[in-house]
Amino acid sequence: MQSPEIKIFPDRAALTRDAARRFVACAREAIDARGRFAVALSGGTTPRDLYALLATPEFAAQVDWSRVHVFFGDERAVPPDHADSNFKMVHDVLLARVPLPAPNIQRIRAELAADDAAREYENTLRKFFTQEGNPGNEGNTCPRFDLILLGLGADGHTASLFPRTRVLREPSRWVAAERIEKLNANRITLTTPVINAARNIIWLVAGADKAAIVRAVLRGEYRPDDLPAQLIAPRDARVVWLMDRDAASELGHG
Predict the structure, then answer these.
(1) For 187-234, what is each residue's pLDDT tens digit?
(2) Where are the domains of the chain?
(3) 5-244 sits in which CATH class?
(4) How far is CA 232 from the centre of its chain?
């Protein structure tokens, strides 16, 4: 495992522009190498800023959207038109504003029972990553996304991998459902092995309220049951943490 790259920006706007440039570079690299770009998107306010920027003419024109395939890293167990839906946020801010073919959008059907939604989405991934003409996954037991975007919760969760939940130790499923008792809600999420199989992982973290958890995850004791973000440790991926100055304020110089 390589140490992640850490980039610190003066503000959220600068972070977002760098993330957009990296998104475009990953897309171009994947399309050149494999003819398509498979990306798993995240919910949250910082990713939302990125999606809004990608939808602007400046950045939208730099991506061959006909070859982009959009997936989701996790989803809340709500219908797609619900205000809490990750899909709705991404659709309204990005997907409806760029020339992305509808068949290239693979949402989690979270209006189903959570376990059913997880099984169906895993089948969707298996079909996409094993079909003829979609190279790039040979020899891997998990799908290899070209890029996965991740955020960091104040409790150390990422995607819907929450502290002290069963899904953290899921060894074989690609997608799993979990009941998050403290939220009184069900979630559907990509599992740790799938995230760790990605070619590129970009963390997007902003705000002073994230400073303590950033320090704990990156500089603290290894406690993955309490800090699930520490489980994201791929052996063969480019991993970069993009943070604003506030989020990185407790990292020090070590």
Answers:
(1) 999 999 999 999 999 999 999 999 999 999 999 999 999 999 999 999
(2) 5-244
(3) alpha beta
(4) 11
